[in-house]
Design brief:
The protein is of the alpha+beta class. The protein has one domain. It is 41% helix and 31% strand. The protein is built from 2 helices and 8 strands; from the N terminus they run H-H-E-E-E-E-E-E-E-E. The chain has helices at 2-23, 35-87, and strands at 92-95, 101-108, 111-120, 126-128, 133-135, 138-145, 150-159, 171-180. The strands form 2 sheets. The chain has a 5-stranded antiparallel β-sheet. The chain has a 3-stranded antiparallel β-sheet with strand order 6-7-8, covered by helices on one side. A hairpin with a 4-residue loop joins strand 4 and strand 5. The radius of gyration is 36 Å and the shape is rod-shaped.
């Protein structure tokens, strides 16, 4: 009985010491890793690290693309809303010859007043009458009308994911809206 109790008292610490003695190698032992085994481990580890790096890079690129697309969507929606809010109070609209500019006129008994205008510059920015940029990165801006009160607005924003020579990564967002002058 007493022998059994002493083994129980040894517990985990005693087992760990015994395991350590069994795994310890004497100095000058011929056991160890060969150069071939070390090289195989290096090659396999390098492959795993490379795979993880490629997966990380692809995930990061996808995340950046999604964030850029969300930014383009926000900017397009805001630009169309700003233009719609400027067109609604008008009486008549006058669309430019290339359909990328518009003037909104409020007709009154005392005379006509231009209350808003929007145009696309050559750098892809939409400006209002005071020259303030309300959207950038615009590929095209189009205004059309069937009469002088109802206006269709089409805005296409493009986003390039930092690779100008590779067109497949260009993302486009189209926003369309129809606005009716109230006055």
């Amino acid at each position: 009985m007493r022998g059994t109790g002493s083994k129980r008292r040894r517990g985990l610490l005693g087992c760990a010491r015994g395991l350590g003695r069994r795994l310890a190698l004497p100095l000058g032992s011929e056991r160890g890793f060969t150069l071939t085994e070390v090289l195989i481990v290096i090659v396999v580890s390098s492959g795993i690290v490379a795979t993880v790096a490629v997966a990380y890079n692809a995930t990061l690129r996808s995340w950046e693309g999604t964030a850029a697309l969300a930014d383009a969507q926000r900017e397009g929606a805001l630009a169309v809303e700003v233009m719609a809010n400027g067109i609604r109070p008008g009486s008549v609209v006058i669309i430019g010859s290339q359909s990328d500019s518009i003037a909104v006129v409020l007709q009154r008994d005392v005379g006509d007043t231009v209350i808003a205008s929007y145009f696309l510059d050559t750098l892809g920015n939409i400006h209002n009458a005071s020259g303030t940029i309300i959207a950038s990165g615009v590929d095209s801006l189009g205004f059309s009308t069937t009469d002088t009160k109802e206006v269709n607005i089409d805005v296409i924003l493009l986003d390039d994911l930092q690779t100008p020579d590779w067109e497949p990564d260009d993302q486009g967002v189209l926003y369309s809206s129809t606005v009716i002058c109230r006055n």
